[in-house]
Amino acid sequence: MTAPDLSNQIIESVPNFSEGRRPEVIEAIVAAIQAPGVLLLDQSSDWDHNRSVVTVAGSPAAVLEGLFRAVTVAAERINLFEHRGQHPRLGATDVVPLVPIRNITLEECADLAAQLGERIGRELELPVYLYEAAARLPERRNLADVRKGEFELLVQEIDQPARKPDFGPARVGPAGAVIAGARQFLIAYNFYLHSADVAIAKDIAKRIRFSSGGLPGVKALGLLVEGQAQVSVNLVDHTQTPLHTLMDKIMELAAQHGTTVEKTELIGLIPEEAILKAAAHYLRLCDFNRLRIIENAIQAAGEKAQSEA
Amino acid sequence: MTAPDLSNQIIESVPNFSEGRRPEVIEAIVAAIQAPGVLLLDQSSDWDHNRSVVTVAGSPAAVLEGLFRAVTVAAERINLFEHRGQHPRLGATDVVPLVPIRNITLEECADLAAQLGERIGRELELPVYLYEAAARLPERRNLADVRKGEFELLVQEIDQPARKPDFGPARVGPAGAVIAGARQFLIAYNFYLHSADVAIAKDIAKRIRFSSGGLPGVKALGLLVEGQAQVSVNLVDHTQTPLHTLMDKIMELAAQHGTTVEKTELIGLIPEEAILKAAAHYLRLCDFNRLRIIENAIQAAGEKAQSEA
Q1: Do B27 and B103 sit in the same domain of this protein?
Q2: Nearest residue of A to residue B293, measured between CA atoms
């Protein structure tokens, strides 16, 4: 296994497989996904959901190859006619999102999702649907809509025009269908208020969430966590609503309620761009980019030296 | 040349050589410094100063080896008895600061400076003085004090007790003496005010600079740059005075003068820790560290995979 060249394009993928109980099947999928140049960042399996989520990263070519190999193994080893679990699913490999990390756009990731889908349809003869940024039909943008009725309903409806796959045959076997797409990196971020009043958190959540007229790319819930009011946010597009915009808006709304943000927490990972943009905003820093950070400059010099060696 | 292992210790060094005119000598020094694992980040030469500044980074062992080789070449090729230039200097390799970058303390860099100095004294038989964090005598902490009277005075005074080198013989040859030490990364950072009144910038500079009772590790000047008042700061220890403390203090002082900070600019590079600390401060973000950044997590996973391969 070789480390990816960070000076070039990097994508992440978080495929979901409909197997969370048989360790040998999960292991085979995780082994398959690690094609040369693919880095395994995380994996988790859930018995009740009967589902595994794997996080990988690398160059687009490496990640696409790893995903194809994992989809192949999942199709061989998982039978949806026998699959039971709490989580909705259409197929053995249920959903494959591609996420831009470095030197690549969301649109390019959507094109990659289509490339992967085309190959799965042609070589594995599985029906493939494209969703979110890769969707070719507006009604397929939303994952929940594509997955409506799950595998069991798709078996009955696959020959209807509305269910025609974007790639592969309009027929469903034991491996079901694959849903491939592209989305921005999702930042899961919590804001704790200096308050024990969950009504304040719920009001702030309602005002910032996009679905009720708030900030683009923001999903939010008001919760009470260990006695403290918390605004729990999924930032699905930090390029539309930067972290500092979210922070400043929540501070403003909290002040209207006579409280403030005591602390915030990040769940999981964050793209470098998102955190650096926040620093530059608050410091009013102009002409800043990641190569002005000495560690990144060292890294880039090392990669340049290696490529010239 | 191999890239450094970023998961381990990284230091930077910015040695200054008393040669800024003969390209073949500068090239020989720069070639020598690039021992295996040493990354050349920058080099610049000045004819008037007759001096070259080279920036390198890598593991402590690699950088120390590269520095020793460069000091050897400089001692062979530069004759201080014939050297003329505007910049003060004691030797062919004039000053060698070691700077902690990752997973290493200033104190460990001071120990490394002593190791390097001991080897230079023993193998090259050059007098070596330790300065700043590596200084063994309080009067040698300040570089300007160590360099007082320059090479020409040192030739006369080397046998005085106060001039006794920390390593090597108490005698001066054509290569002069080497001044080795350790310091924190220096952040050069400018704050532009919404004002054309240089008096405001000068007042703010006076109030923040440590030498007049301001913030620790802060050197500052008030300037007029293209008609705009600018507070120009050298932050010599960002661990003592974080960037956000500096920003907030200058904002507060600017407000007292009825103005504000319009924008800021970074000159050169900044350590990752300094910029991330600013982001976390303003976002009130708890439990954050560099491995929560996806690019860094990918990098670390890649290094782990390589070390296991």
Answers
A1: yes
A2: A270
